[in-house]
Design goal:
It contains one helix and 24 strands. The chain is mainly β and about 325 residues long. The chain has two domains: about 220 residues, Sandwich (Jelly Rolls), CATH 2.60.120; about 70 residues, Immunoglobulin-like (Sandwich), CATH 2.60.40.3080. It has a 15-stranded antiparallel β-sheet that branches. β23 and β24 form a beta hairpin. The two termini are about 20 Å apart.
């Protein structure tokens, strides 16, 4: 039987939430077109983020790195000639536009305006068609993942870090774009849909740093094509309407997340009041967290994106909770 959550009377400061989502639709690209920086703009701005781009107009072999904006739909053509397409053939939730990156050592996203120095809530990620088909079938020097017997423990890993004032965060968020490491081959996968990656645990940032690694490495580095695609980057705009400071170092873990029934909140500090807000800043539930595991029932809460704010004596801490 589902448990009923009892509201507790808790005095708590209110954090004013403002969010901006970069969906890239504002570029109004025709179907099967892209922007790769050939105009020398140096990057692409949308919402409160800037995606740097470098275009080298070499007469023999012009190339770009960093980010491109794409509305290409080709999910069947393998190889370098199809470097801008997502394996989904479209943006998240059926939209037409998304961003693709070619990671030359690393790719970065800069937070601008109200988002600078704040928290990135998350984004949607998927494989490019180029990388997906190379891992699935093999291409040029890139191996077919799993090898001839499918037993090779291959992987393609995206690692995301936050940078603030030039210093990289100690923490990172890892997302496997492909994973064949399980002994049970039925668990092998290559991501072929948009998947949400929660980045709120990285804390405050003025840049995000993206790194790729693969089990398929040759004499000159990674053989797997160093591409992936993103969409719907949601930033939290700065704005705290209380005297409390934001403390991103407070450890809070919420799982399962997303959830439709309940969430467990791991809190490793002395007792502190917490409050669940919707994206409009409306208080939905309150709870006093104690050290250890805390149960939060959300079976009566409508599906959507919510924020759990904890008011600790050392500052405010916030985590996103997605209710399905």
């Amino acid at each position: 039987m589902k448990q009923t959550f009892t509201l507790l009377a808790v005095a708590i400061s209110f954090l004013a939430f403002g969010q901006t989502t970069a969906s890239f639709e504002s570029f109004n690209l025709p179907v099967d077109s892209f922007l790769n920086g050939i105009d020398g703009s140096g990057g692409f701005a949308d919402g409160n983020v800037f995606l740097p781009n470098e275009y080298v107009a070499d007469p023999m072999f012009p190339f770009w790195s960093g980010w491109s904006i794409s509305a290409t739909t080709d999910v069947t053509t393998s190889g370098f000639s199809n470097e801008f397409s997502a394996i989904t053939g479209q943006g998240f939730n059926g939209s037409s536009t998304y961003a693709t990156t070619f990671v030359l050592d690393e790719s970065r996203i800069k937070l601008e305006g109200a988002a600078a120095g704040g928290t990135v809530e998350g984004m949607y990620v998927t494989n490019s068609t180029y990388a997906y088909l190379a891992m699935k079938n093999g291409y040029f020097i890139a191996k077919r993942f799993g090898g001839p017997t499918r037993d090779d423990p291959d992987y393609f890993l995206l690692t995301i870090k936050a940078s603030l004032n030039g210093e990289l965060s100690a923490d990172s968020v890892n997302f496997y774009l492909a994973d064949y490491r399980d002994a049970d081959n039925s668990n092998d996968y290559i991501v072929d849909e948009w998947s949400y990656v929660d980045l709120s645990s990285l804390g405050n940032a003025d840049e995000l740093v993206f790194l790729l690694s693969s089990s398929d490495v040759g004499q000159f580095g990674m053989n797997t094509p160093a591409y992936f695609c993103i969409d719907e980057i949601t930033t939290t705009d700065n704005g705290v309407s209380s005297n409390s400071k934001v403390n991103t170092n407070l450890g809070i873990k919420i799982f399962p997340n997303p959830t439709s029934d309940f969430a467990q909140i791991e809190w490793n500090h002395e007792a502190a009041p917490a409050q669940l807000f919707d994206i409009n800043g409306k208080s939905i539930q309150s709870k006093m967290l104690i050290r250890g595991m805390n149960h939060l029932s959300v079976n009566d809460v409508p599906a959507g994106v919510y924020f759990l704010q904890v008011n600790h004596e050392s500052g405010l801490a916030t985590r996103k909770l997605i209710i399905e």
